[in-house]
Amino acid sequence: MFYKNMRYHRLKILMAFICLNTFFFKVHSQIDFENYKPLYCSGEIPENLKELSSAKAKDAISEIRSKKVTRKDRMQEQEHAIEVSFLEDQLLTSGQVLFGDPMTNYVNKVADVILKNNPDLKKSIQFFVLRSHIPNAYTTSNGLVFVSIGLLSRLENESQLAVILAHEIQHFVQKHSLEQFKQEKNLKKDFRGSDLEERLKALYRFNKDQELEADDLGYKMLQGTKYDMSEGIYVFEMLKYANFPFLETPMSIDSFESANYKFPEVLKNSIRESIKAGEKSDLAEDERENDDNKSTHPSLNKRILILKDRIATLDNNRKSKFIIGEAAFKEMQKIARYELLLLFVRRGDHGRAYYLTRILELLYEQGSFLSRIKGMSIYALVEHKYKGHNLESYGCNVTDNRGDWRPITSAFASMEAKELSVFAAKELWQISLKYPKDEFILNLRSKVFSLMQNKGYMKLTDFQNFKTQSELKAVSDSTSTVEKPIDKTDTKLKNPRNRATEFANSVTFNSIYYYGAFYDLPSKEELFKIFRKLESEKATNIVDTDKKERQSAAERRAGRIQATKERYAAPNPEFNGLVVFQPKINVVKGNFLGSAKRNYFIEEKTKNSLFNHWKYVAKKMGGSIHIVNNAVNSNLTTDDLNNYAQLNDWLMERLNNDTNEMTLFYSQFIAENMKEYESDYICWVGYDYILLKKPLQLENLFYSIMFPVFLPVYFYYQFEEDVTLKELTMVYNVKNGKTVLNRRKVLECKLNTDFARAQIYETIYEIKHSKAK
Amino acid sequence: MINCIKKQSICLLLFVGMVSTVRAQSNPGYMGLKESLSFDVNANFGAIFSGGNWNHINYGLSYEYARNKTSAFKFGIKRHSGALDGEYFYYNADGYYVPNTGEYINVVNNSNKITYNINEIYFQANFYREDMGAIAPFGPYIGIELSASMITPKTNTLTMSGNIYPELNYTPNNIYGFHTSIHWGSKRMINDNFGYYWDFASGFTLLQSGQISVFGSEYEVYEQPKDIIEYEMASQLAYNKLIQVSAGLIYLF
User: Which residues lie across from B119 on neighbouring strands?
Assistant: First the structure.
């Protein structure tokens, strides 16, 4: 009885445990992967974003002043402190950094384990996830550690993350960034980069000794934990294969062939050639990587050997790959991989995105999100192909794509536009059958059909004329038994026009291989019905297209002038509001010695005043004009950053694709925001503000002394700065991606209140009167 | 004289016509405001070159209308008063020369001063420099002015003594002039409606009534005393336009 009760009791406990875990797992996994949406920040904004960057930089400078160091060291440290303070804040508010999200929370948990016995160090370091596809991690001298999504998506277990974090922590503890900054300053290297991640890389370019020291001290740190240090070997190997997909499966165009749709040998040979060219460049790159003397980084092979030696001396038993838990790691990994896919779409790396959807479908389940990405990637490649763009810039670069994604991406790059559009149409048809009510997929499908018709000049109804070999044989057999009557008028003379008829009779839709693409598809009759409908709709518009093509250059020019006049004649009736990004500004200030550099203090001040001017003018002009703020200040909220990031993602996708009238993936995600703003227009404004002192002109001073009446003129000229203000304004219609305004201005005026407001008013006025091109 | 005025009017009309043909488009003005009224304070320094009295501060009012982003029309009036001291009439140490007799005689003006008014009406076309961030009617500009002015002596009668030519009592005539000048200036705003401007101009007289050549030699001889006076007044008018500095308050609406 007792044992029975015990068993029953244990069973109850076990059931309770299972239920709790299931419940916990469900509660824990709140992400809807079927309809996945990009992750943004959540929770409280970090405290360091509430204080102005200039205040933080000034505090750092005054701390440095109190140190007893040489003047040169002090100047370099101050410069470093200024660069770092401003760069960190710009990065944190750029929409490229995540906090409070599941990935960052996970990274923080692992960091907690590593720094369990060092709470003071834990307080001085903050961990963030960087929305970058490059597998890398960065540490700033103020203790901000950024781990990229590219890196997180490749990790296999928790220990690997721990090795990376321990390494980065040691860079901070040993103050490597300041050391390296001083060394590079002495070599007179520049820290300017065209974007934030490049500046981050430039500023935190550690040398070999520093990397090896961070490795060594990182391992020591991990020895106090239960993490399996040998996983570090796999981390280095992972970095070696950074240009490979995180997981591979063979995929080439052969896998898309069917009985009646076979790619020609010409195409396959072209693909093989480009793969060979890629493999040749792989050898050169591997050689460079393995030569420790040529690289600024220690080679990965060397680091692997060092780690192996160290592990050999340690007791690595009772070490674990997971301390927080495998389930939590898997969840984080899945999120990172979905985010990576979105990053590729945003960057315009459609070739890679297409391949990765296949990997994720094999790993997880096929869902509508993955299907949408697949459809989007193949549609985007077709758009770019018809625009004449080189697909190597859109994720099909044979040199960069090492591994199993090379064959399929090379195939996309090698295909002609018509071939690729038929391939895409086939894919999208199959996807749309699985998701017949998905508006986005249906939209992509109709876009591809339209491209085939209007840009490829393909007659869609020709596809239904395709016949298999057996069908063709049956037709020719049936016609061959009929005897042709003897033509009594037949003489030795014949009409040369008969050649056209002979040719037309010889060409069948079977001679062009892709006409068989849809033959084997399910529901092909439905597809052909759609094709017939599209053809009949096109027939009614055919005259206009022909007329446009027949116009002479002069007529087209006159048409453009007329269109420009009409654009400004009256307000654009489609204009329903404007969402403006926080204006971006770079300020470069010069001195009398002729050198010039970025002045972050003036930048911050000017940025804030520009924001106020935009707000003021928007209010004065009335209407729905919203300025999205992401500047560091005490009122900044997480929602502000997220709004900015969401709009920025759409804009990045638009700019990276650089194509008018293209459906964009991120349009789905910002539809709600734009509804709230009651606007379809998005505006990005950037300024380059260059204030240069004129070099001292002594001869003019001499002449002025000779003719004193000109002295005031001389002083005015000499001390007045040469001002250049470059303004770039880009306005897009979010609904259809069309460019509304793309304008560059170069002015010679200072950004005083009256000038700034006049220019802003004029810009908004022009936007209101501009029609989309 | 009438022909003179006719010519001036035709030129003015032609100029207005020419500037009017500049393409107009819906322009924003400064924050949407295209019209401005200003109160002007001008100082004319050209008389320095004639060795005369440079204290020519005068006042005016003007109205400007922005035709498009880069150009605007301005209409204005100016008025100032001045005086010529008696010593002007000793413009030649030897006096003035009487060709008939070959004598040099001095003319003494018993009136202390000849006071006069200059009334001026002008039309100016301002071209705003877009590359300097200007949007008419705000910001730096270059302008071309056409103006018509009249110098009116206020002193009714002059009496002269000494060995003078028979005409003793003399009332100088009005002198008319038609001038042009080039302006360089800038308008700045204090708030949305009020602002200020500064302007520097340099010009010359195109046409002038009377038979005097104001650009003749200093030692040119005039047979009649009235000619000397008219000469001096015409000089004031002409040199008036040589260098002019203005500043003022503007109200945009």
Answer: B79, B150
Q: Which residue of A has its CA nearest to B24?
A: A569
Minimal CA separation from A715 to chain B, in Å = 18
Q: Which residues of A touch B131 (CB under 8 A)?
A: 746-748
Same domain, A367 and A267: no
**Based on the domain organization, do A709 and A649 belong to the same domain?**
yes
Q: Is A41 inside any structural domain? A: no
Residue A706: phi and psi, rounded to 5, are -65, -40
- Give kind and range of the element (H or E) at residue B202: strand B194-208
pTM over 0.95: no
Strands A97-98 and A126-130, bridge-based pairing: antiparallel
One domain for residues A286 and A403: no
Convert the pLDDT of each residue in A699-756 to its tens digit.
888 888 888 777 888 887 888 888 999 999 999 998 888 888 899 999 998 899 999 9
Is A223 exposed, middle or buried, given 0-12, 13-18 or 19+ CB atoms closer than 10 A? middle
The residue behind tokens 């009116």 is B152
Q: For residues B158-174, b (16+ Cβ closer than 10 Å) or e, as one string?
A: bebeeebbeeeeeebee
Residue whose C-alpha is closest to residue A165's, from A149, A148, A147, A151: A147
Whether A316 and A191 map to the same domain: the answer is yes
Model confidence band, residue B91 (pLDDT cutoffs 50, 70, 90): very low
What token pair was written down for B118?
């200059």
Judged against a pLDDT cut of 80, whether residue B43 lies above it is answered with yes
pLDDT band at B210 (very low <50, low <70, confident <90, very high): low
Residues of chain A numbered 739-768 and touching chain B (CB < 8 Å): 746-749, 752-755, 757-759, 761-762, 765
Q: Which of A568, A749, A752 sits opposite B132 (nearest CB)?
A: A749
Question: Is residue A620 within 8 angstroms of chain B, CB to CB?
Answer: yes
Most confident listed range (A359-373, B90-104, B233-247): A359-373
Do the domain assignments include residue A29?
no
Instruction: Based on the fold, state whether residues A71 and A175 are members of the same structural domain.
Output: yes
State whether A154 and A279 are in the same domain: yes
| Domain span holding position A261 | 47-328
> In this predicted model, what pLDDT tens digit does every residue of A118-142 receive, in sequence order?
999 999 999 999 999 999 999 988 8
Q: Where are the domains of chain B?
A: 2-19+53-252
**Which of A568, A752, A761 minimises the CB distance to B31?**
A761
Residues 3-32 on B with a CB inside 8 Å of A are: 25-26, 28, 30-32
Chain B CB contacts of A725 under 8 Å are 133
Of A753, A759, A765, the CB nearest to B133: A759
Query: Please, which pLDDT band fits residue A591 given cuts at 50, 70 and 90?
Result: confident
- On whether both A532 and A587 belong to a single domain, the answer is no
CB contact under 8 A, B28 and A761: yes
How many domains does one find in chain A? 3
Name chain B contacts of A754, Cβ cutoff 8 Å.
30, 138, 188-189, 195
- Inter-chain residue contact A749 with B138, CB threshold 8 Å: no
Per-residue pLDDT at A542:
47
Chain B residues within 8 A of A759 when measuring between CB atoms: 133, 135
Flag whether pLDDT at A194 surpasses 60.
Answer: no
Residue A721 contacts B where some CB pair is shorter than 8 Å: no
Whether the CB of B192 is below 8 Å from some CB of chain A: the reply is yes
Do A165 and A268 belong together in one domain?
yes
Residue A316 is which amino acid? N
Q: CA of B220, closest CA in chain A: separation in Å? A: 31
CA-CA distance, A736 to B113, in Å (whole number)?
79
pLDDT in tens, A630-646: 888 888 999 999 999 99
- Please name the member of B28, B69, B133 whose beta carbon is closest to the beta carbon of A755: B133
Q: What is the mean pLDDT of residues A530-542?
A: 77
Residue linked to tokens 């030699």: B217
Cα–Cα distances (Å) from B133 to A587, B69, B109, B130, B188, in that order, read 18, 11, 55, 5, 11
For the segment B211-225, the average pLDDT, to the nearest whole number, is 54
Asked, for residue A619, whether it belongs to a domain, the answer is yes
In a domain, A321, yes or no: yes
